[in-house]
Structure formats: structure tokens, C-alpha cells
Amino acid sequence: MPPRLAGASGTASAWPAEFAERYRDAGWWEGITFGTLLRTRATAHPDRVAVVDHAGPGGTRRAWTYADLDVRADRLAAGLSARGIGAGDKVVVQLPNVAEFLEVIFALFRLGALPVFALPAHRESEIAYFCDFTGAAAYVVPDRHDGFDYRALAATVLARSPELRHVFVVGEDAGPFEALADLPAEPVDLPDPDPSSTAFLQLSGGSTGVPKLIPRTHDDYIYSLRGSAEICALDEDSVYLCVLPAAHNFPLSSPGSLGTLYAGGRVVMCPRPAPDTAFPLIQDERVTITGLVPPLALVWTDAASVTAYDLSSLDVLLVGGAKLAEEAARRVRPALGCTLQQVFGMAEGLVCYTRLDDDPETVATTQGRPISPDDEIRVVDDEDEDLPVGATGHLLTRGPYTIRGYWNAPDHNARAFTEDGFYRTGDLVRLTPSGHLVVEGRAKDQINRGGEKIAAEEVENHLLAHPSVHDANVVAEPDPYLGERSCAYVIRRSGTEAVTAAALRRFVRERGLAGYKVPDRIAFVDAFPTTGVGKISKKDLRILGPENPESPESPESPESPESPEV
Ligand code: OOB
């Protein structure tokens, strides 16, 4: 018999058999699926509350027990199956933080259909790409959220994407589509998927023209949940507030809503991250743990000093997604009265945490250490040579929950992974003698806008589609609140009408690009700085800055600054 390859249906991106065997022997891969995980929890403690939100009729509170969630997943799976959705089908899920998010993904897990995790901020450009690239059979949206009508977006995407057969709407008014609430049917027998098969496709932050999709298996992801739940000391009494967009890897699994369900705790869905929404929920639901990106952590620590809400139930605040400044880290305990855990993770796999018993200095100054003893970490120079402990270099990693390749991207995989399967994270780090990682920077062509990742090339391609743009380069520049914001340096095309920064911003927005990717600042230049060999130097562009005389149209405040979520 040929060796069994784990993950990604035996394609080149799967773990080699010897590694799969090692991870099973070590007990990391338990051989259970998400469907089974929920069933065992629902059997063990059917009446415990699994998820709470305030998305009932007229904004009323809903609390579903483990038994409720289990039955709902079964019934929805039956309804989806009756619509022809089955094992291997892809379903783009774009939901805000509502209980149905968990109902939908567990129904899909039970079917062996693969959720493709979109974020609420994504628009036509991203969603149409996900649908086309994966050949998605269905797309799940809310009716409206945060003033945006997702049914209109769905109508546009449906008209463009030939393979998309269904749009299902969560909420009170499905418009021309089918309401998700009308789908549930009598449960049917479904074969449990292979635990080593791909459970879902997660999005990469990306550094290329189009987003890459990350195939995560039941085995590998459930291991990362178990590890995260242990490290964050989750148990049945834990109450996790899901503040960041639920589909993102951080609030999903670090330890996130799925880690909380793994531990038998309670997930509280928070529809918006601002303190005036989150603080009353912390008080009323006795929230014990949550996760934030650094800009939100700053807002929360400021707001906590003047709030009348009782935040005393909060034990742990996780902060990650972007670098947390040391000073900000030191403010967490005095302001919020809880323990900080820094998290440095990536949807591709590796997640590092400071530990609950690390000394305060380590917690304030490092981004933690990996979940697993089998996470292999290399810090290398530009030639892939290993560097000594303490030196800053490129982080490469391999392990039981880090993918061996992106979904259907062989050319990119050849660059993004070493021949022996290490993922090139694009992060610049150094290791401390205690084995903690400190993130020192980034080599990838990406902007980390308060935790939200923007691939420069993707935005450049949209700018280049404008007839008056000759060339464009997008880089990060410092921002006191977000850490980084995006700046597009643009060379106008001679002989065309002189386009303005505002018109260009409108142009990319109208092309259906998510709002957080629209450049915060656009500066027009006559030429780009070049390196010694004549290549455009993004490093030099980054230091041009708003005050530089060569960027005459600056500075401009963004039209509508998008608040960071992830
Ligand atoms: C998380 O996942 P992604 O996939 O959105 O982004 C991963 C990238 C990392 O490669 C790194 O560049 C950056 O985000 N990053 C951090 C960081 N945490 C993530 N950079 C500096 N300090 C940190 N603490 O962002 C993510 C996934 C799971 C858990 C937490 C974050």
C-alpha cells in the first residue's frame, strides 16, 4: 500500500508519512474530527451553555447549550445536504460574531464540506476571488451588519461566479435568497470525515497579488486547540469573549471560540470591539478571557480606567496579531486587573504564547514560545544558514499544526516553503536563551495595519488598473495608534488627466476592495528610489514619510479610517 499522506487529500502539500506517524505516535493528532468533538462534549455536558449572543429578534440574548449546538449542526447539515451540498464542497462563510457562525461551521464539518473563512470587511474583489478560486457551491452572509447590506454584495458575486449555486442569509430578511433559518431538517446519517483530511480553508495575510488559502486538517487544528486551551488554562468555567472577527485564526483557535468549546467552556459573541459594547458583556456574562489586537488593547486599557462597568471577572487578556509595544504591555495589569498573554501566531500554523507563569519581564518583552515540543524553529540568514541564539533573522518553522503548502498554489509553495517543509514566515525574529521569540520586523511585502494584514502587491494591482497611474508602490509607515498604516506612492501617467489621491482611493474602493486595504495616504512622486542594482527600494520608500518634500500631496487624513479588527 502506498504511504498514507496526511492532509490536503494526498497532494504535495500534505505532511510526509513519517511526520504524520510521528505526530500520531506522540499523541498530538488524536484522530478525531470537529463533528465528533462537538458530539462528545454535547454528550458529556448537554446542558452547559456553549454560546451566547445578542442577535435574537430585536437584539435579544440567546444562549445555546452544547446539546442545542449539536442538534442545530445536525439539522443544518441535513438541510444543506438536501440542497446538494456534500463532502468536499467549498462554502464561503462571511458572518459577523453571531452564534450561527458556530452552527454553520459545525454543520459543514459534519458534512465534510469545507468552510472558506472570509472576514466581514471583505468586499466583491475578495469574495468573488474566493468563490472562483475554490469553485464554491454556496456563500453564507448576514442580511446586514454594521450598516452594510451583504445581500447586495451576494447578488453581485452570484452574477459573477458561475459555480456558486446558493446564497444563504443569516438574519431577519433574506431578501431574494434563502434564509439559513429555513434550512434545518430531520438529521440524516453522515459518514464522519477522515480526521487527517482538510476541514476548512483559512486565509493567509498574504504578500502576493491574490490571497492564498490555507488547508487545515481536523487533526492538526484540534491539536492546536488542545495545546492553546492548556496553555491558557481554559476549563468548563471559562467564558471567552469573541471580540475580533470570529473567522480569523486568532479568535477562532488561540484559544478562541473553538479552544473554549474544546475545554467545555462558554463562548460569548461580541458584535463590535469597542469598550461600550464589550465592557457590559464582560460584566453581565462574567467573561474570564478574551483576545485583542494591540490598538484595541490600548483603547481598552484607556477606557478601563474610567469605566463604571465591573471587569473583575477578567483573568486573562491575550494580545497578538501585531507587535505589542513594551510600554503598552506593562499597562495591561494595572488598568484591567488581569494577566497578559502575548500571542504571536499565523493562520499557516505556528502559535507562540507567553505562559501564565512567565515572569512579568518576559511577558512584557517577548512574544512567547511555541505550543508544541514538536514545533521546530529555525532563525536563519538570507542564505538559509542558521544563526546563533540572540541573532535576528528569518523565522522558519515546521511542526504538527503548521501547513506544508498552500491550497492549489504549487509555484508559490516552492518559494514559501523550504525543500524539507519549513514554512518561511516572512517574520524577522530573535530567540532568547529561554526559548522565547521576539519579533523584530518583517521581510515580507505586507503592511500590518493594527493586526489587519495587507498584501502590498494586491493593492498595487488595483491602483495600476487606473488609466492615469503609471506605477504604484504600497509600503507601511508608522502610525501612533495602528502601529502601521499604508501609504501608496504613485507615479502619474504623463499625458493623462492628473488624478487626485481622493479619486484614486474612491477608485480602489469601487473595485470592491475591502476598506482596510484602501491606502491611508497616497503620495505622488516623479520616480521611485532604487537600490544599487536598479530595483525599486521599498526600504527607501518607507522612510520617505509624509513630511518629505518629494511627497507633495501629503499628508491626508483617511476618508473614513477603518477601525482595526484583525
Ligand atoms: C495572526 O495571524 P495572521 O495569519 O493574520 O498573521 C500572521 C502574521 C505573522 O506572520 C506576523 O507577521 C504577524 O501576523 N503577527 C505578529 C504577532 N502576531 C502575529 N507580529 C508581531 N507580534 C505579534 N504578537 O495574526 C494570528 C494568528 C493566531 C494567533 C495570533 C495572531
Rg calculated over all Cα atoms: 23 Å
Q: Give the termini separation.
A: 44 Å
Kindly name the structural category: alpha/beta
Q: Average pLDDT value?
A: 94
Low-confidence runs: 1-5, 8-12, 549-561
The CATH architecture of the domain at 30-232 and 247-265 can be named as 3-Layer(aba) Sandwich
Q: Order of strands across the biggest sheet?
A: 2-1-13-12-14-15-16-17-18
Shape: globular
- What fraction strand? 15-25%
Query: At the third CATH level, what is the topology name of the domain at 30-232 and 247-265?
Result: Rossmann fold
Instruction: Work out the helicity level.
Output: 25-40%
Give the CATH level 1 class of the domain at 30-232 and 247-265.
Alpha Beta
Give a quick summary of the entry.
The protein is α/β, with parallel strands linked by helices and 566 residues long. Among the domains are: 30-232 and 247-265, Rossmann fold, CATH 3.40.50.980; 446-542, ANL, C-terminal domain (GMP Synthetase, Chain A, domain 3), CATH 3.30.300.
